Design the sequence.
C-alpha cells in the first residue's frame, strides 16, 4: 500500500473512501493501540478512540474547520492522545465520585436503618400501650400465638377448647386493632396502612 499525501487522506476521509480508511487503519492503528495499552487501556478502548478520532476529523473536514499545520500522522495521533487523556480523566473523576458517593450511601443507609429502628421501637411501644389494656386472658392468647404456638397447644396450656382459643384470639386481636386505630398517633406510626 502506497503512502498518501495529507491532502489525499483528507479527501479520502471526506469521500469515505474505503482504500484511504484502510490505509489509515493499517498505518496508524498500532501506534494508537500501543499508546493506549501503555496507559492502562484495553484493545476495545483503542478501537473506540481510533474510531472517535476518525469521526472528529470527518466532521471537521465536512464543516470546513480542518486546517492541517502538521502531518496527518501527527494530527491524528494528537487527537487520539487527547481523547484518551479525556477518558482517563473521566474514569478518575468517576472513581472519585464513586468513592465519595459510596461513603455517603453508607451514611445514608446507616441513618435510614437507625431511623427505621427508632420507628419500629416507637411503634412497638405504641402497640404495647394498648396491648397492656387488654385483659390478662387476651394478652396470654396473643402472646402465645405470636410465639408460634398452635391453637391446640394454647388450649391445652390454658385448659380451654381449641375452638374457644381461635374465637378469643380473633376477638382480642380485633379489640387491640380498634383501640390502636382510635389513637390520633396511629397515622403517624402506621402511615394509615
Sequence:
Amino acid at each position: 500500500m502506497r503512502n498518501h499525501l495529507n491532502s489525499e487522506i483528507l479527501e479520502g476521509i471526506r469521500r469515505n473512501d474505503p482504500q484511504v480508511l484502510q490505509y489509515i487503519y493499517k498505518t496508524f492503528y498500532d501506534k494508537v493501540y500501543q499508546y493506549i495499552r501503555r496507559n492502562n487501556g484495553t484493545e476495545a478502548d483503542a478501537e473506540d478512540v481510533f474510531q472517535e478520532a476518525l469521526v472528529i476529523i470527518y466532521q471537521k473536514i465536512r464543516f470546513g474547520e480542518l486546517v492541517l499545520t502538521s502531518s496527518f500522522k501527527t494530527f491524528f495521533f494528537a487527537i487520539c492522545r487527547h481523547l484518551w487523556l479525556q477518558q482517563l480523566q473521566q474514569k478518575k473523576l468517576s472513581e472519585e465520585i464513586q468513592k465519595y458517593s459510596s461513603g455517603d450511601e453508607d451514611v445514608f443507609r446507616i441513618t435510614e436503618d437507625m431511623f427505621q429502628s427508632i420507628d419500629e421501637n416507637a411503634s412497638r411501644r405504641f402497640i404495647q400501650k394498648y396491648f397492656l389494656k387488654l385483659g390478662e386472658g387476651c394478652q396470654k392468647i396473643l402472646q402465645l400465638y405470636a410465639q408460634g404456638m398452635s391453637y391446640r397447644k394454647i388450649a391445652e396450656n390454658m385448659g380451654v377448647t381449641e375452638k374457644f382459643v381461635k374465637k378469643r384470639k380473633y376477638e382480642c386481636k380485633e379489640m387491640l386493632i380498634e383501640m390502636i386505630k382510635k389513637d390520633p398517633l396511629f397515622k403517624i406510626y402506621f402511615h394509615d396502612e
Observations:
- The helical segments are 6-15, 18-38, 43-62, 72-131, 136-146, 151-158, 162-182, 186-190.
- The mean pLDDT is 82.
